[in-house]
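Ligand: iron/sulfur cluster. Inputs:
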Amino acid sequence: MYQDRVLSGMRPTGAMHLGHYHGVLKNWLTLQHEHPCLFFVADWHALTTHYGTAEVIEQSTWEMLVDWLAAGIDPSQATLFIQSRVPEHAELHLLLSMITPLGWLERIPTYKDQQEKLSDRDLGTYGFLGYPLLQSADILIYRANMVPVGEDQVAHVEFTRELARRFNHIYGKEPGFEEKAESAVKKLGSKKARLYRQLRTGYQERGNAEALAAGRALLEEVQNLSLGDRERLFGYLEGGGKKILVEPQALLTESSRMPGLDGQKMSKSYDNTITLREDPASVERKIRTMPTDPARVRRSDPGDPEKCPVWPLHLVYSDPARRAWVQQGCKSASIGCLECKQPVIEAVLKEQIPIRERAEQYLKDPTLLRDIVMDGCEKARKLAAETMRDVREVVGLAYG
Ligand code: TRP
Ligand code: SF4
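Predicted complex:
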């Protein structure tokens, strides 16, 4: 009923690293050419766990946005914005909180896990319990049907689906729904109305899925209906009430192929990262000093790439011929580790050239970045306002 829309967010963690680039960001780059996309900085989410460090949020936010653009997110294709600049998210969060069973929130695995993991902080707060609910508001307010997230966030998208269903169930059956739907059918014009009725019976009485699909296609084409009538007709076709909120799907982002310098997952907290715009001398030093297969004590000792954290980097950056050179050279001790690392160093430096170039203009002219983001916030607000108008109406707060 609504058009495809992708939405995803990240908490402002500051400079992005190559792990983010080869995981999340490359995925966003592909998606921005395929669908309308909204990407935002989840600064309120950062406050749920880091409410005591206000001073870093603003700087991290801008740094992260520069990195998104530097990575190639194109503001003429994707809308970039900051969560707290679209206060409607908070309003929807509040209204959804009225119908959210506490048990649903308490049961989400990240709640207990994160509380244990971040045990140095007091996370027995209302805001932290509501983390997934705020995320649901982020998604539902744009009627986004596709949400690219990592494995750890899938439960939150699932929760969002359940909540959307609950909301539609409670509020979708407005008083006089049948009558309103019937009068909307008449507005289709006699030919289309007849077809709609046939398809509706075909689906509801005989379970004919093709009839459902054809009915939806028919409604997609109709131009002269109000949004409310469209929602009614989509709901009436299936036999439910109005579909006010859209149930999103998680698009699972594959985990990054780029591990950290020590072979573990690349992460700021492990201190094993290369940042997206890291200084070339530092890139070189970090890779040169990376640990290798411990069996290669001397240059003449053979090694095994499978036991070396440099090998996964060749899987990211090297073609089959070079990989064969590594395998053979390492196992026969015919190449040294520095020799083996050199092509990786060069590949990373080469990858960073266009990224650094794109970042340059935003660093030179911060108003350019601000304009892009403020423009994005404005676009996002318009979309959010449309949903909120419908939501306020069905919960009983429209006031004429
Ligand atoms: N919780 C997400 C994370 O930690 C960030 C996020 C906030 C998000 N709101 C969202 C992701 C909405 C997708 C959609 O990664
Ligand atoms: Fe690792 Fe390459 Fe040295 Fe082998 S030669 S141990 S793969 S760095």
